[in-house]
Amino acid sequence: MALPQLLPSSSSIISHKSLLNPANYLLNQNPDKIFTTTQSFSHRRRQRREPNSLRCSASSFSEKHHTNPPKSDDVVELPLFPLPLVLFPGAILPLQIFEFRYRMMMHTLLQTDLRFGVIYTDSATGTAEVGCVGEVIKHERLVDDRFFLICKGQERFRVTKFVRTKPYLVAEVVWLEDRPSGNGDVEDLDALANEVEMYMKDVIRLSNRLNGKPEKEVQDLRRNLFPTPFSFFVGSTFEGAPREQQALLELEDTATRLKREKETLRNTLNYLTAASAVKDVFPSS
Q: Which biological process terms from the Gene Ontology are attached to this UniProt entry (predicted)?
């Protein structure tokens, strides 16, 4: 079943005008199950057993992502896992590991803190500098030494130097945190987050209508989240547009991130409104 197109904001067009395809902007229609990703790490034949697809709702996006959050000026070494997807703080990511070098990485992580860096990469733009720590919260090791993992996004980081590339990437990283808003107006930031939530609800509602689903009231999407973790949650729903997600991940200002998401959702809502009007006039179209 077709999902609604999320149309890029003007800032998206300026930053990625040659990269973004509006048809790639996907928003899951079920507000309880907004974020869905299952990634397999081999271009060889499909394995017989696949990990269950897990969903991440807003309730997964806690205000703090680690019991002892690192300081932003700390420099640490972190094993990296380049992937064609973007992990956000608070998001849940199921993975299947069977490539040899990453099985080696898993054996090491099982003896340490079960944390590694997920960093976006593709053939056109290469490997990004900013990524997100994935913490293994559940794992299963199979008899053939494959692993099924459930990871949760934690802190963001920026790569400062690659330490080694074999058998897998290890880099020195510094931690990223959103800077305080210039005017420090928490109420304005909260109001902006509420506007973004309103647009998300309207997009889901109109999408359901266009796809013949019952038009029911969309439940609370924020779930009492503060603006920063909510902005990460919203970014995680832009599935199918990893370069735009990467741009959102790299922003270090919550207000800027929310404004960009708001513009994208507003453009999408305008598109869906027009599509709904056409459907009313031409029901068979």
A: proteolysis
Q: Beta 170-176 vs 75-83: how paired, if at all?
A: antiparallel
Longest dimension (CA), the chain: 63
Give strand pairing partners of 148.
Answer: 96, 140
> Which residues, in sequence order, are bridge partners of residue 140?
148
- Of the candidates 160, 178, 193, the residue with the CA atom closest to the CA atom of residue 74: 160
pLDDT digits (tens, 9 = 90+) for 135-154: 999 999 998 999 999 999 99
Region 40-45: mean pLDDT is: 34
158 contacts: CB under 8 Å, gap ≥ 6: 129, 130, 173, 174, 176
Task: Give the whole-angstrom CA distance, residue 178 versus residue 200.
Answer: 23
- 210-222: per-residue pLDDT in tens? 888 877 777 889 9
Place of tokens 């994935």: 134
- The whole-number pLDDT of residue 182 equals 65
DSSP H or E stretch at residue 190: helix 186-210
- The pTM score is 0.77
